[in-house]
Amino acid sequence: MSPSSESPAAGAAPVLVDTRNRPLRDLRVSVTDRCNFRCTYCMPKEVFGKDFQFLEREALLSFGEIHRLVRIFRDHGVEKIRLTGGEPLVRRKIETLIEMLAYHDDLDLTLTTNASLLPQKAQALKDAGLKRITVSLDALDDAIFRRMNDVDFPVGKVLAGIEAADRAGLNPIKVNMVVKRGVNDHEVLPMARFFRGSGHILRFIEFMDVGSTNGWDMANVVSSRELVERIHAEFPIAPVDPNYRGEVAERWRYLDGRGEVGFISSVTQAFCKDCTRARLSAEGRLFTCLFATEGTDLRSLLRADADDAEVSAAITRVWRARTDRYSEIRTAETAKMRKVEMSYIGG
Ligand code: SAM
Ligand code: SF4
Ligand code: SF4
Predict the structure, then answer these.
(1) Which atom of ligand 3 is nearest to the CA of 271?
(2) Is residue 39 one of the residues assigned to a domain?
């Protein structure tokens, strides 16, 4: 058997696998490269300032184009779609796109947001067919959070967004916290204490060297191992089996039954060997790794009236040739390489 195909079950479409036998299962779709926050680890103001050239409107994939690509990706085995960005809720009428994608009710459809617009949007997102949501929040301390988002956005409004999502039934809600040593790592225990027993799942993300503008330094990374120890000392936890192959967050449960926490250890415990994720940028470039330097332009194909078979063949070629394992080979040198920005490629 060739390394790029697995024997399909009778009647099923062949599973598309890459050079390391990893199937294509998840697609992260960036719907905009714009954001109303300037998180220092993602879109530092010095780079993403007033003069920064974001994509023009015509450059963005239309909802119809995104829907068509999602349908073709689904035919290749994609089971999970995450809408992201930039900030996905700043894309106008995002609920219309959700409604289009929700037509495929076998797809696990979710979205990651900074929650700034959730109080007014949560119910419309749910009504459109969104199943779950992930919210980013890096601190409970208002001054620290305002400094990290760098647009003076208060914690209270993010919490109001989480409550609105909960009321609308977009649960279980996951809360992502990027931990940076010396910046917000002393907020880890307050965050754990706050979300324990809330029904929401807090996940700690190691600060990553995405893009080339966030001044990443290993000295700022707090390893998940260290975080597990810190939390365990206060609130005893034990590991839980993953839900499925390729699950990004390592799951742990509180021994007193008050829920779960997750750890995303892209830096200290690479999970490339099970990475089943592709990323589609807002202008329709396909990337096979978060740390990629180049993507494949699918928008040109769509706009040149290629039929589904041609688009499908392009996706197949890209995935079959995929060799990515950046986190396994990360060094101080690779961290300095020019890579696409996370706000562009979609987190
Ligand atoms: N704007 C939305 C948000 O912040 O939730 C979605 C896009 S954002 C790029 C997706 C996720 O990537 C967020 O949870 C964010 O905290 C995370 N992220 C961004 N830069 C990161 C970095 N340098 N290291 C680790 N996680 C990062
Ligand atoms: Fe915007 Fe999300 Fe990046 Fe923060 S992490 S700047 S909210 S895209
Ligand atoms: Fe996947 Fe690339 Fe991250 Fe490895 S470094 S887990 S291949 S996105």
Answers:
(1) 6
(2) yes
pTM of the model: 0.94
Residue with CA at minimum distance from ligand 1 atom 20: 42
- The pLDDT tens digits of the residues spanning 89-124 come to 999 999 999 999 999 999 999 999 999 999 999 999
3-class DSSP state for residue 20?
coil
Q: Is 41 in the pocket of ligand 1 (CB under 6 A)?
A: yes
Please report, for the domain that includes residue 305, its CATH number. Answer: 3.20.20.70
Please report the atom of ligand 3 found closest to the CA of residue 274: 6
Q: Which domain holds residue 280?
A: 16-345
Q: How far is residue 305's CA from residue 285's CA, in Å, rounded to a whole number?
A: 17
194 phi and psi, to 5 degrees?
Answer: -65, -45
Q: Identify whether 111 is part of a domain.
A: yes
Q: For residue range 178-209, what is the model confidence (pLDDT) as tens digits? A: 999 999 999 999 999 999 999 999 999 999 98
Does residue 291 belong to any structural domain of this protein? yes
Domain count, the chain: 1
- Backbone φ and ψ for 16, nearest 5 degrees, come out as -85, 120
Which ligand sits closest to the CA of 322? Answer: 3
Distance CA(238)–CA(261), nearest Å, equals: 10
Residue 8 belongs to some domain of the structure: no
- Please say whether the beta carbons of 183 and 210 come within 8 A: no
